Amino acid sequence: MEGRKGADHPTAAPAADESDRSPRRDAADPSVEGAIDGFMGWCRTVRHMSPRTLEAYGGDLMRLAAFLDEAGVRDVRKADLAVLRRFLAAEEERGLAKSSLARAVASVRSLFKWLHRERVVPANVAAALRSPKRGRSLPAPLSREEVDRLLSAPQGDGFRTARARAVLEVLYSAGLRVMELAALTVDDVNFARGVLRVRGKGRKERLAFLGAPALDAVARYLGIRQLDARLRASPHVFVNRRGGALSIRGVQRIVEDQLAAAGLAGRGTPHTLRHSFATHLLDAGADLRSVQEMLGHADLATTQIYTHVTTKRLREAYEKAHPRA
């Protein structure tokens, strides 16, 4: 490296100071579009971001690229804190929700953090960007009675009904994300132990539990699926009528249809069953760290939102029942 002692030694790795790095000319294309392409490739192949997260980051950074182009900034090394703040101000002016604006800030900060680490830029100018303060919304779980109604909604013995019943039972029994459910393979199901092998965010694997009703629903569904040669050939647990893997949108439609059949139209999404799973466990006395493991949360703070839900329920019960509340 120029200006660094020992940089030309074949085995010497210069001690890189995060606050004092010179640009590395061959690390990545310094054009704005080239830098974003490089970053998105890293997110896809190294970070293993989900398709939905990649789409969100890509949208934010495409708008950043367009804004910088209009501002005459075509080399990412010439983007300073002032122009990044103007971009975020423009995003706010076009009516973005605080949650979307916070994600845009995260996208820009992640981009420049990566560019700095790759020594494309000499300093991470985006580190000083701050996310807007936003109120933390509490999840809206279904009550136990509502979950019972939903799980009883699929009626009949055909493939679609059996699949809907199995989808609902697995979502609630294991607390899965919709992408995790869609990715399940037949080999991931261990009927003898009553567990699933789940690939979560960042391809991290964990074990999830299936109760007896969920195991029975999956076994019945797979039995029906086995009768059709097109369907039984797929390695995925949940398939569409053509034998392909059931899409995330396909799972969402199943849940929407069954919520409507249960008289709960508009009351939730597949993620609502995950919220309900966590809330009902904590209501019944499960400890927070166990629920964290079952949900596949990397940070306990993410799981702690559910304690607010259960505390709110306790407060409501107290105010309703106590004579001097």
Number of strands: 3
Order of helices and strands: HHHHHHHEEEHHHHHHH
Uncertain runs with pLDDT below 50, 5 residues or more?
1-27
CATH class of the largest domain: Mainly Alpha
How far apart are the termini?
70 Å
CATH fourth-tier homologous superfamily of the largest domain: Intergrase catalytic core
| Helix count from the secondary structure assignment | 14
Identify the strand order in the major beta sheet: 1-2-3
Q: What is the average per-residue confidence, as pLDDT, rounded to a whole number? A: 85
Going by helix content, strand content and strand pairing, the class is mainly alpha
Q: How would you describe the overall organization of this protein?
A:
By secondary structure, the protein is mainly alpha-helical. It has two domains: 32-128, DNA polymerase, domain 1 (Orthogonal Bundle); 144-321, Intergrase catalytic core (hpI Integrase, Chain A, Orthogonal Bundle), CATH 1.10.443.10. It is built from 14 helices and three strands. It is globular and about 65 Å long. The termini are far apart.
